[in-house]
Write a structure and sequence with these properties.
mainly alpha; two-stranded antiparallel sheet; 15 helices
């Protein structure tokens, strides 16, 4: 199981270069397929080498986009799956996700096997499926996942799945935000009855009114209860100003949430997710000597806390005068 990282890395880069040559020359399609298959077999025999195999992703994804082939796509998805399972630092970038979306749509669109493989990659798991609850480990897969859906029935099915995942754990809400799923949902509300492009992905399904009102808007609201951004608020205002069909439902939903927030603590920190902290300065020594009370509300992400190694610090006192 031991290996020389530099040697394996250089070999994988060399194989990636050969795949690029094959992409430019149609005569070598079988060679490209054999090369990717070889890398997959090697990772299967020694999963540890996955940590130095990232460099082959770019040429492989370019190849399957420009030279569509069901066999090569299958090997490409297998490569993504093995890297996601065996390399904790492996993440898709936006460009790779866009290319993979195009490649899948040229071949298999939203067949169940492809969707299941993408779920496994997203969860870094061999057992994850649409009926199980899992952690979203690769947020860039979320937009890619919805971009290959072709009909309203599948849209309903997987919107409900992501709704359940976000309610399962706050971690998934944060990951969906990182993958811009919240901004995508706003675009979905604006373009519910037509095709649209968002972040370079093409979305071709139609969402029915029931799903917008009962899944999309409540899910959007739920995610924003835990994490938001100035960009999202800007897009939300734009959507409301457009006076689209669902502007009133959207405004009503967020108004109800805002009224609840007014009764919540002014400072809310995601302990365990980020190294944020609240600092209170100029506390007098007599305040400490005479006794004091600290009041806080701690919200635990039950499922994520069972797997996280984070040790968040809830409260500390530092003597800035005497060190």
């Amino acid at each position: 199981s031991n290996f020389e990282a530099n040697q394996v890395s250089q070999t994988v880069q060399f194989i990636g270069g050969l795949i690029d040559v094959c992409r430019r020359n149609k005569k070598h399609e079988n060679l490209a397929l054999e090369l990717v298959s070889c890398v997959n077999d090697s990772i299967g025999h020694n999963p540890k080498i996955a940590v130095v195999c990232d460099s082959i992703i770019e040429p492989t994804t370019l190849y399957v986009t420009e030279r569509p082939s069901s066999n090569f796509l299958s090997q490409t998805l297998q490569l993504y799956s093995q890297l996601s399972l065996n390399n904790d630092h492996f993440q898709l970038n936006l460009s790779q996700a866009q290319l993979l979306s195009r490649a899948i749509k040229q071949q298999s669109t939203d067949d169940e096997n492809t969707m299941l493989r993408l779920i496994g990659i997203m969860a870094r798991s061999r057992s994850a499926n649409e009926k199980s609850m899992f952690f979203i480990r690769m947020p860039m897969l979320v937009l890619l996942f919805f971009s290959i859906i072709e009909n309203g029935e599948k849209c309903h099915k997987y919107l409900k799945m992501f709704n359940d995942l976000c309610h399962h754990t706050i971690y998934n809400c944060i990951q969906c935000h990182e993958g811009e799923f919240d901004l995508f949902l706003l675009q979905l509300i604006k373009n519910y009855d037509k095709k649209f492009v968002f972040r370079g992905f093409e979305f071709n399904f139609i969402v029915n009114e029931t799903d917008i009102k009962e899944i999309v808007i409540p899910l959007l609201n739920y995610i924003e209860c835990y994490i938001s951004s100035p960009q999202f608020l800007h897009k939300l205002i734009e959507t409301l100003i457009d006076f689209s069909k669902y502007s009133f439902d959207l405004m009503n939903s967020f108004s109800q949430t805002s009224s609840v927030f007014t009764n919540q603590p002014r400072i809310a920190l995601m302990s365990g997710f980020y190294d944020d902290f609240a600092s209170i300065n100029e506390v007098r020594s007599e305040d400490i000597s005479n006794g004091f009370t600290i009041q806080m509300t701690v919200q635990i992400d039950t499922f994520y806390s069972q797997t996280s190694s984070s040790l968040p610090l809830l409260f500390s006192i530092t003597d800035a005068t005497h060190g």
